[in-house]
Design goal:
single chain; 562 residues; alpha/beta; nine-stranded mixed β-sheet; two-stranded parallel ribbon
Length: 562
């Protein structure tokens, strides 16, 4: 079992192995499906002209005389009773169709798995089979207690050398290290993205962006899914933000939860993200800003909730928070599965209204057709904020809950962050002159969508309300289901009979090869259509992509990332 848990799902060898097994499974099905037919059905009956007349057979029997009757009766085998014959025929039929279902089902399942692996590879939702098992494990509700962060003296007692990490080039524009938090004891991968030409002794001051990935995911998903190295450098080069380092810690403390606060009895993940990662960055990159305005905490999906929730607890650490497609109430981790009272106590908008305002800035983005209610969370936080804290909303009508949206809006988040002169002052630089957003829009950065109150509608578009043949439309779902069922029916009922020979005929090699090729094709088509139907259904249920345009953009982005 431990061996299976260690299978790397993002490796090329794993993907190639599944693809080869899918093809081999389809070949086996194409060859063996005819053997699931009854013996008499494997051969076509001879031409009708060759069928003897039953009256002739009767005359022949009469001419043999009554004297032969006892001999024939004595030599005929005893036939089973009619009831027993019927039951045996039913069992054989069930066995034949079960065998067909297995033969067709194996390549179908492998193609579905292959599709999932291809989607997972560039975005790194899960890294190993063990991550899948843990993510699929049922969440049990239990009492959880949020514990406070350790006193600063605990961190100060740690030797200075323990705070430094050694990063290696990861080959995708980022650097990676596996580092152990000296207080929490958490040992996980951390990615950093440094600007072009960075040196610890270059005499410049660098701001810091800490990013928290979603569930399921890991730091690399933020690198590839949002093309962070490219977009960060573009924002720096265009003068929209000062030179900045981006740090992306993993928060998969045990693979099965996505916590962002310290929970009694569980790894101290907030100690890791709120205290240890910033201290490690300051020790490893000594020329980063020491001012609050020079640090931003951001995240996507479940990581977006964690970014806001963590910033509440360390107001002295971060001056800005980027919240991209968050839910208002905790949706993952122990906070989401420990009863309504704890959920209510940790609702972002409620906590924002109760905290002592100190000038913390929030960028809260969520598409109005996001099924997780991200736009509604943005509006709730806007209604709850008290000055001098501020909330800037960005709630586009469409976008779903997808990497296309986050990739599209990441430059908007960076532009918003750099629009505060204090951010440049924290890096020892003057703020850019002129209209920041006008210049950014000219460079292709999406402007903020600050939806007026009378135009706000939140909630994913159901198949009944969507355009019939949009990606989550009812027509698309019906076509996908009908097409997949039809091809499966052909594979199970018709394909096994292809290429039968007539009685007395010699097998035709051409006919045999053609029949095998036809069966292989129909099995692979059935597998592909079922995989597409599963994907369409999962997307409609989760509200990830709400248009074919977004899906096409995601495919292009995945190809570039992969």
């Amino acid at each position: 079992m431990s061996l299976l848990r260690g299978i790397e799902l993002t490796s090329s060898s794993t993907i190639l192995t599944v693809a080869v097994l899918a093809v081999l499974g389809a070949v086996v099905a194409a060859v063996l499906l005819p053997w699931t037919l009854p013996a008499r059905a494997r051969t076509r009956p001879a031409e009708p002209a060759n069928i003897p007349d039953p009256t002739d057979a009767a005359d022949t029997a009469d001419s043999q005389g009554a004297a032969e009757a006892p001999t024939k009766a004595a030599t005929e085998p005893t036939r089973p009773a009619p009831g027993r014959l019927t039951a045996l025929a039913v069992l054989r039929a069930v066995g034949r169709y079960t065998a067909r279902a297995v033969m067709v089902g194996v390549p179908v399942l492998l193609v579905v798995v292959l599709g999932g692996l291809l989607i997972n590879r560039p975005m790194h939702y899960v890294r190993t089979l063990g991550d899948v098992i843990e993510a699929a494990a049922p969440r049990t509700q239990g009492a959880s207690r949020v514990t406070p962060l350790p006193d600063p003296s605990v961190y100060d007692a740690v030797p200075a050398s323990a705070w430094k990490a050694t990063f290696q080039d990861a080959g995708d524009g980022s650097q990676e290290a596996t580092w152990t938090g000296p207080v929490s004891g958490i040992r996980l991968p951390v990615r950093v993205i440094v600007p072009s030409g960075y040196r610890p002794d270059d005499g410049r001051t660098y701001n810091v962006i800490e990013g928290i990935h979603g569930w399921v995911g890991d730091p690399q998903s933020l690198v590839t899914g949002m093309t962070s190295p490219k977009q960060l450098q573009e924002a720096i080069d265009a003068g929209r933000i000062p030179p900045s380092i981006m740090v992306l810690p993993s928060v998969n403390v045990d693979g099965g939860q996505h916590d962002c606060v310290n929970i009694a009895g569980r790894p101290a993940v907030e100690t890791w993200t709120a205290e240890e990662i910033p201290r490690m960055i300051r020790a490893t990159f000594p020329n980063v800003s020491t001012q609050r305005a020079g640090w931003m905490l951001m995240g996507i999906s479940a990581g977006a909730y964690c970014a806001a929730r963590t910033a509440y607890d360390v107001p002295q650490r971060f001056g800005a928070v980027g919240v991209m497609s968050s839910f208002d109430s905790p949706g993952e981790g122990a906070l989401a599965h420990s009863g309504r009272q704890l959920q209510a106590e940790n609702t972002l908008s409620t906590m924002l209204g109760k905290r002592a305002p100190d000038g913390l800035r929030f960028y809260v983005m969520g598409a109005q057709d996001d099924s997780s209610g991200a736009a509604r969370a943005a509006w709730f936080m806007e209604d709850s904020v008290r000055e001098p804290d501020s909330v800037t909303i960005d709630t586009p009508v469409q976008g779903g809950h997808s990497w296309v949206l986050w990739n599209d809006r990441f430059p908007s988040l960076l532009t918003w962050w750099g629009s505060d002169p204090a951010v440049f002052a924290a890096a020892g630089l003057p703020a850019p002159e002129g209209d920041v957003w006008a210049k950014a829009s000219a460079d292709g950065v999406k402007p903020l969508t600050q939806t007026p109150r009378d135009q706000r509608t939140a909630g994913s578009i159901s198949p009944m309300r969507a355009a019939p043949f949009e990606i989550n439309g009812l027509g698309t779902i019906i076509v996908a289901v009908v097409a997949s069922l039809a091809t499966v029916g052909i594979a199970l009922a018709r394909a096994p009979r292809w290429g039968r020979r007539r009685e007395g005929d010699r097998p035709s090699a051409l006919r045999l090869v053609g029949a095998i090729a036809g069966r292989f094709a129909v099995v692979m088509v059935a597998a592909s259509l079922i995989a597409a139907a599963v994907g369409i259904g999962a997307n409609a249920g989760g509200g990830f992509y709400t248009s074919w345009r977004d899906l096409k953009a995601s495919v292009r982005m995945n190809n570039q990332a992969g």
